[in-house]
Amino acid sequence: MRKTARSPRSTRTRTAAGAALAATALLLGLAAAPSAQAEADGKHRAATLDELAQRSGRYFGSAVDNPELADTEYADLLGREFGTTTPGNTMKWEATEPQRGVFDFTGGDEVIDFARANGMKVRGHTLLWHNQLPGWLTEGTWTKDELRSILKNHITHVVKHYRGKVFAWDVANEIMNEDGTYRENIFYKTIGPGYIADALRWARAADPKVKLYLNDYNVDGLGAKSDAYYALIKQLKADRVPIDGFGLQGHLALQYGLPAGIKENLQRFADLGVDVAFTELDIRMQLPADPAKLAEQADWYGKVTSACLEVKRCVGITVWGYSDRHSWIPGVFEGEGAALPFDENLQHKPAYDAIRAALIAGAKKG
Ligand code: 9MR
């Protein structure tokens, strides 16, 4: 995804720095042609993760939670390095429809505005999930017809509001259990499994162009849970239900090992005729981090990136926040963290270099 606009500040900084470098080189008589290798290295060094991903037609994105936008150093780097963003919280149901029929798009719009100012595209997350639902919805008692109409109304309003502003929607998030059975969320219990096809159809009716995804964790490799999604998407396709993509969240942890068969898994979904993407990638470890763990983490980031680049329909990678300064992990998994490619000081970790190397190698292969 090519950036069409950049914050004026970053453009000025780059141009001024470039001019200063060129002037210095001329003064020092360094204008002689650099070696092809040096030129290639220099070209790569200047490129951002998203620019490197674009060389093979992919995007590289990072989620953002709205309060992080006030951290200007963080927001500036987010806007420079990444081509897409996903709001971590503000497009979820509790944020967008806090009272029945009363919609609030303030938080999501803030992310859209930030993205637009920085030439980024936005993934919509999420229309339907068992978490972060408003109290009026979870505490109410609904008949099947009532809940269908509530769901339809929610999806229709939110998707219409963001029509043309998000390029993809996680329509249904985390709808399977680990053993591949349906998660018994409020929608399943009240409507039955047909709520998934309903949701996809309503989303399509509200925006004919946006890419519609199912999205989950622990589906990165081959296993019962990803098998269940494979069967579901196959059936949805056979029933001509609109489904465009499968999102692999990619919340990985060093202590559990790298899932087996990531590339094969991506490929089998691609072969069903849907796009695939890593939508929430992070690779946590037990703290404290040390050089060995950081090296293993880098290896995993490189392998996940390469797996995506080896599958034509793997359209991009999003990390769930990009720096250890802002991450959901320490608050949820006690004693774990250091999951992202930049550290708390926004410095590159070995993982950053491994992602770059994989993107560069993938682009060369074409
Ligand atoms: O990053 C989100 C965090 O700020 C919220 O507190 C949390 C609430 O459940 O949701 C986090 O994002 C989740 C995402 O929406 C779905 N997949 C798992 C993510 C991490 O929990």
Summarize the structure in words:
The protein is α/β, with parallel strands linked by helices and 366 residues long. It folds into 2 domains: 8-45; 49-365, Alpha-Beta Barrel (TIM Barrel), CATH 3.20.20.80. Helix content is 46%, strand content 16%. The protein contains 15 helices and 10 strands. The chain has helices spanning 8-27, 36-46, 49-54, 72-81, 93-96, 106-117, 135-138, 144-161, 186-191, 195-206, 224-238, 262-271, 291-309, 329-332, 350-365; strands at 59-64, 84-87, 121-128, 168-173, 211-216, 245-248, 251-253, 275-286, 314-319, 336-337. It has an 8-stranded parallel barrel with strand order 1-2-3-4-5-6-8-9, surrounded by 5 helices. The two termini are 16 Å apart. Mean pLDDT is 91; it is low at 4-34. Bound molecules: ligand 9MR. Ligand 9MR is lined by residues 65, 88-89, 131-132, 173, 249, 280, 328. The site of ligand 9MR has 9 residues, from loops.
Which characteristics define this entry?
46% helix; TIM Barrel; eight-stranded parallel barrel; binds ligand 9MR; 2 domains
Strand order in the sheet with the most strands: 1-2-3-4-5-6-8-9
Number of helices: 15
Instruction: Tell me the fraction of residues in β-strands, as a range.
Output: 15-25%
CATH class of the largest domain: Alpha Beta
- Overall number of strands: 10
What is the C-alpha radius of gyration, as a whole number of Å?
Answer: 21 Å
Characterize the largest beta sheet: strand count, sense, and whether it forms a barrel: 8 strands, parallel, barrel
Bound ligands: ligand 9MR
Outline: globular
End-to-end Cα distance: 16 Å
CATH topology of the largest domain: TIM Barrel
- Total separate domains: 2
What is the multimeric organization of the chains shown? single chain
The SS-based structural class is alpha/beta
CATH homologous superfamily identity of the largest domain: Glycosidases
